[in-house]
Amino acid sequence: MDRNQHYVLGADFGTDSVRVVIVDAFDGNLVLSRTETYSRWADGAYCDPIHNQFRQHPLDYIESFRKAVRTLTSTDAYVASHIKAIGVDTTGSTCALCFANGSPLALDSRFANDPDAMFFLWKDHTAVDEAEQINRAFSAWNGPDYRTYSGTLYSSEWYWAKLLHVLHHSPSLACEAAGFIEHCDWFPALLTNTNRLESIKRSRCAAGHKAMWHQTWGGYPSNQFLSQLDTRLVRFSQSLGTETYTADQVAGLLDARWAAQLGLPNRIPVCVGAFDAHFGAVGGGVAQHVLVKNIGTSTVDIIVGPKPERGQQEKIVSGFVGQVDGSVIPGFIGYEGGQSAFGDYIAWWRNMMAWPLTNLGIIENSCMNQAIDRILPELEKQASIISTTPDSPLALDWINGRRMPSADQRLRGALTGFSLGTDAAAVYRAILESTAFGARSILDCLSRNGITIEKIIAVGGVARKSSLAMQILSDVTGSEIHITDSEQTCAIGAAIYASVAARLYPHVIDAQRVLRAGISRIYTPQQQRTLVYDSLYEQYQRLGSFEETLRAIALRTHT
Fold first, then answer.
1. β-bridge partners, 245
2. Where are the beta strands (DSSP E) in 371-508?
């Protein structure tokens, strides 16, 4: 039998690693996959968690991608020679100062070790003050509220807040830059040797969800508004242009030098980039009334809805953090919500439990990782036999701030209801329950806005690794939770877009029907547990209100 001659490559740049897949474009078979971690990031370089500083060096992205792709193409030369297009997604808003050619400043030897010259990772919250400055500015602004389609508050995780922060924190460095570029815009430009800022095709997904771009006001916020914040912002805004592109569009053709390095055909199409969760939603099967919950270090919840009819105004989903035409599937409004911590919350508790192992020298280094790796499975085992009651310990999942409803990165997590009988497994279960309560608050937000969810699909590492977390999520929300059969749904989404860019399918929906991940397991809610969780959810909401009050008092005292 003749081998297929149409393959596509999808690359998913996550928080910790890049995942690359090669997919058969005709039947969706995942032919090859490879994951490579970011070496500097793994060592904790350029990060300061105490001050919420999380930076990534662009070389981490380049080196890991090159290694992953080269490993795959050297495994099967035939498949490599028949790859028709490349799709790329990244975390976001993950952005960096760049030169006029689009190259991040950290790739220049003068700035190679300056964290402010690197990519500000999505979860970097050093721009909290700048986000507040942006939100305050709207109270004195008589023009459009550019946050209308991005929720009620602008977040420190987003583009303009991070740019404003680097202007304040490193003004001399900012003077060296010609622009501030999203990872998902830079990498396709790098692969296609698009070396002028004005020629780089900007992602509709990134611009609409994180940079307040919308057709209603002709693109990005006006120069007049940006000047109220800092006149230097205008120069950076002008480097963006006004047009944005959906990810089914071609950013350019693979440069010959990159083709040689990667072992790929020369001049194959490279898609316009987008964010990982949005591609993951496509790879997971997002559709109208179908919510895809991408559960990893944080969560991003994605749904799509119809565009307004001609002459009608777009419905605003209050409390959600973004709604953008074409950000998920061209021709539909893409809605984004989520939680600022999920897997990170679990990892935090594991690291707390591992503190004696890592700090007291009571175990040999050769055994350290093995011992730490046993912590979560044992916590999961013990927590699964605990029966939750209305008097059980309660946690708040805002340990990395609150993404929604109403983003506020100054808020903190909380643990309450402990006794001398509370053990590590009980705390672990409370943490899992808190993440499920946060998920339920998102569903409540959608319901209040008249959006019906008929199906929930969970993708991402935590969804596949923690059966307890998924059962609790089902019990708390009272909904079935469908788990995909692939660990690589984001990369599959990138491959779906690549297949459209290669003109193997006329539309993303056509490609999605064939190439999306399947369902491997369904968690069903247990009614008796749901009744208990209804009571605890009310307590969770009151605990959240208390934290808001407490944080407001603390901030007033601090100022």
1. 203
2. 394-396, 414-416, 455-459, 481-484
Whether 3 shows a pLDDT value over 60: the answer reads no
pLDDT tens profile 508-518:
999 999 999 99
Question: What is the pTM for the complete model shown?
Answer: 0.91
| Distance separating alpha carbons of residues 159 and 155, to the nearest angstrom | 9
Give me the residue spans of the domains in the chain: 343-484+521-558
Cα–Cα dist 53/48, whole Å: 5
CA 83/CA 65 separation, integer angstroms: 16
The answer to whether 15 touches 56, Cβ cutoff 8 Å, is no
Task: Please calculate the CA angle 475-409-544 and round it to the nearest 5 degrees.
Answer: 45
Which overall architecture, per CATH, does domain 343-484+521-558 show? 2-Layer Sandwich (3.30)
Measured at the CA of 223, the angle between CA 408 and CA 319, to 5 degrees, comes to 25
Helix ranges, 201-293 (H): 204-210, 223-229, 232-238, 256-262, 276-284
CA angle 541, 546, 550 (to 5 degrees): 150
| pLDDT tens digits, one per residue of 325-380 | 999 999 999 999 999 899 999 999 999 999 998 888 888 877 888 889 999 999 99
- Please state, in angstroms and rounded to a whole number, the distance separating the CA atoms of residues 350 and 127: 28
Q: Give percent above pLDDT 70 in the chain.
A: 99
Determine whether 245 is exposed, middle or buried from the number of CB atoms within 10 Å of its CB (0-12, 13-18, 19+): buried
* 489 touches 460 (CB < 8 A): yes
For 457-488, the DSSP string reads EEESHHHHH-HHHHHHHHHHHTS-EEEES-S-
> For the range 373-377, what are the long-range contacts, defined as Cβ-Cβ under 8 Å and sequence gap of 24 or more?
375/350, 376/346, 376/350
- 315 is written with which tokens? 């419905």
Residue 248 near residue 270 (C-beta atoms within 8 A): no
Predicted confidence at residue 410, as pLDDT, reads 84
